[in-house]
Design brief:
189 residues; alpha/beta; Rossmann fold
């Protein structure tokens, strides 16, 4: 399949899933998000991890904030800088700023986390498929990060609502596979 057709499919799929996600009621969104957090919290990957990279919910992505009060973990969150993600240690006492895409980010003065400190990455996704590939927003930030030698061996969990867990996504040769996927139904293998 040619690249233009793949991009067109991805764009349409992205639009439809974001629309479906944003149509969830506040209560439904919170209930599904809490169920995802419970599934993550009970996973072996999360249990063994000391330093976890996560994200702040944007455009009604699953909300992981229920996990952030777990002070047995060191939490890291991204800032978009040029075409890269820079990860900073964050605690609920730290203020957030709004980044260039309107996404909440840690303040740039907070300590930076290096890859060798990270045990698990909770990856935001528009959709994931049964082979553990993800569809993101199209900027390539996570694909670049996860293909980098410093980051490629760190376990990842793609986070989506179950309606966005699909049999197959259109993939490109640069798309990076995740370790597993988590929905409100459970962890997928």
């Amino acid at each position: 399949m040619n690249r233009a057709k793949h991009q067109s499919e991805k764009t349409e799929l992205r639009r439809n899933i974001i629309k479906q996600r944003q149509s969830l009621s506040e209560q439904e969104w919170q209930e599904k998000s809490q169920a995802i957090c419970t599934n993550i919290y009970n996973s072996k990957l999360f249990d063994r991890a000391k330093t976890v990279l996560a994200y702040f919910s944007f455009r009604q992505e699953p909300d992981l904030s229920y996990l952030f009060s777990d002070n047995t973990k060191i939490w890291g969150f991204p800032r978009c800088v040029d075409k890269s993600l820079i990860w900073h240690i964050w605690t609920p006492q730290n203020q957030l700023i709004t980044g260039k895409y309107g996404i909440r980010e840690p303040h740039p003065n907070l300590p930076i986390i290096s890859p060798h400190q990270v045990d698990l990455i909770l990856v935001p996704c528009v959709a994931c498929d049964y082979q553990s590939y993800r569809l993101g927003y199209g900027g390539g930030y996570y694909d670049r990060l996860l293909s980098s030698p410093d980051w490629e061996s760190i376990p990842t969990i793609g986070i989506v609502f179950d309606f966005a867990y699909l049999p197959q996504l259109p993939i490109e040769n640069w798309d990076q596979k995740l370790t597993t996927v988590c929905t409100e139904i459970g962890l997928k293998s």
